[in-house]
From TrEMBL:
It comes from Chaetops frenatus (Rufous rock-jumper). This is DELE protein. GO terms for cellular component: mitochondrion. Pfam families: Sel1. SUPFAM superfamilies: HCP-like. InterPro entries: ISR_Activator, Sel1-like, TPR-like_helical_dom_sf. It comes from the Eukaryota. GO terms for biological process: extrinsic apoptotic signaling pathway via death domain receptors.
Length: 201
């Protein structure tokens, strides 16, 4: 009986968190940012990862509360530890730009989180990793190209442009000007100005 009561308590707790998070989203859409933040915070403090991510967004952009990147990082970290893919991406970016600790530890943890988010299908993480591996101190061109192609296949025109550069210059792949042209055309068709300029050149 005690176990059943505990299970019911857990379900009730989760349901309240889901409801609060939904209420927060609806409040944000209606322009009631302070109400939205309060709802997100209540759900986040109950351990609901989607709400923790939303609180992080509020702190990062100053919606419904004062802008505070340290608090944003804290809530992104909490959501990321529950395997929330977009929070993994945001926390990784936070670590690389503002995070505490030694640069090596931050860098290593950030790359691990970016890899997890990219595998989960977060296009932003794929694109970021693609450029990161191409431009790092020790470039890993094949690895970079792999992530750029994933992001391009998810519809990211900028990554498609970078894939074109890889084919044009032979970075991580055999040089193929016809394929570079095709990549630039697709990127330009999706609205990428750099690809259009490259085609004209």
């Amino acid at each position: 009986l005690e176990e059943a009561a505990f299970q019911l308590q857990q379900i009730f707790r989760i349901d309240i968190s889901i409801a609060l998070n939904i209420l927060g989203i609806e409040s944000m859409r209606a322009g009631h940012c302070r109400v939205a933040f309060t709802c997100f915070k209540l759900a986040a403090d109950r351990g609901y990862s989607k709400a923790q991510f939303n609180v992080g967004l509020c702190y990062e952009h100053g919606r419904g509360t004062e802008k505070d990147l340290e608090k944003a990082g804290f809530y992104y970290c909490q959501a990321a530890s529950s395997c929330h893919p977009m929070a993994q991406y945001r926390y990784a970016r936070y670590l690389l730009q503002h995070g505490p600790g030694s640069p090596w530890d931050r860098h290593h943890k950030a790359v691990t989180l970016l890899e997890q988010a990219a595998v989960a299908g977060i296009t932003e993480a794929q694109a970021y990793l693609g450029v990161f591996y191409m431009r790092g101190l020790q470039p890993q061109e094949k690895r970079g190209l792999k992530y750029l192609q994933l992001a391009a296949n998810s519809g990211d025109a900028q990554s498609r442009f970078h894939v074109g550069i890889c084919y044009e210059q032979g970075l991580g792949v055999q040089q193929n000007l016809a394929e570079a042209l095709r990549q630039y055309q697709q990127s330009a068709a999706a609205g990428n100005r750099q690809a259009l300029e490259r085609l004209q050149a």
